[in-house]
Amino acid sequence: MTGQAPSQAGPDISISEPCSISDPNKTIDAITKKLSVYLAAKHSPPFTAPAGFDDALNALESPDHIVQVFLSRGFWCWLAYFLATKDPKTQPPLSLSGIPYDTLSVIAGLVSEAPVDDTLVKRIQSTLWVARRGSTRRSDLSKAGISGFPPRPSTMPVSHPEANSLKRPRGQFFEDPDEPAQVAQRPRLNNTILDTTIPVSLPAAGQPTQELHSLDHISQPMLKVNPPDGYKWPDARRIPSVFPPELGDMIARNGHKASVFALFPPDAAKCRLLLNIEAAKVSPLVMRLYGIQIVEIEQQRALALPGGVNAIISGSVQFTKTKLSLWGELFGDLIIQGVQNSRGYLDEVARGIMLSKCLSMEVPSATDHPAKITITINEFALNDIITRLWLS
Q1: Domain boundaries, the chain
Q2: Do 388 and 234 form a contact (C-beta atoms < 8 A)?
Q3: What is the predicted pLDDT for the residue at 200?
Q4: Pairing between strand 309-312 and 192-193?
Q5: Which of 13, 140, 247, 377 is the most exposed place for a label (fewest CB within 10 A)?
Q6: What is this structure's pTM?
Q7: pLDDT of 102-119, one tens digit each?
Q8: How many CB atoms lie within 10 A of CB 254?
Q9: Nearest 10 degrees: CA dihedral of 154, 155, 158, 160?
Q10: For helices 75-85 and 24-40, angle between their N-to-C axes, nearest 10 degrees
């Protein structure tokens, strides 16, 4: 996705043609269509600021007479003019310098009434409210007297304070490393083995009851996620920009890459953040989050049950249904508030469900395999995370 709206003006409209004022009505209709098409264009996530947006805001301190005409009609009218005149795909750029002031005023009035696509609204909400420069951008708009920009989204998480943001190095990206090989199924030992078809519930001291599912397959390798819906393997040096230090140290690495994946499908309810946790960190983390002890028996993980019984994990076991508060300190405000504002969690709250399935942990049998954490997250928080890890 480029910084500007895609070229969706249609075959009968060319914004590179010089404007004519021989027929004012035709000029008004043509330019109104040229500008309005940028408000109707579809935009795809992740929603980043349009290219040149900050430079255009800085220029509002001393706008020319054309910009002032569109400014007087509100934010969306100004944005349409900005997108049309700064579109890098249009050569030569659209120029309205030959249009009389009265004609410009009529055009601006018509453009201000043009419909705005929902995806553009979301993109601008992300630009003005989710992005870390959002407050500065809103301040610039207010100083310029621009009104009517979109309000704070109702489901947006509270962002990290600027003081907690770390400068992210712009490291070189490498080719995706080879996926770790699958581990062959090991023979079952003389211990209790979890039934691979029946969910198991185990009470843990001091913890709420968790639901465990033993999955009927071999431990899975690192996830395979592909754009445009997915983002994978960010530079590991960017991890501190999103994850608190303790969690950041647990995330599996492969060279300079971190085992983090973001799924951003068209359906925002299906937004997911996925992490792979270093094999050595799995047992302590399960004890911390679920109060269940995992032991190792001949290179296989097992659940230590009351009475000295060990339940060998065959394939993998999935921990679900947990109190969100148990994850707060480890995951930090950005992720936890993103979960709290996700559609899945809000639905659980509305139904009175106390133990959430929006955070789950899948633990494979092999002791040298990482565990996978799956997080259901709000689209605005995920957009922020994608920007920090992959797009900055």
Answers
A1: 24-143, 162-391
A2: no
A3: 40
A4: parallel
A5: 13
A6: 0.52
A7: 899 999 999 999 999 988
A8: 17
A9: -130
A10: 100
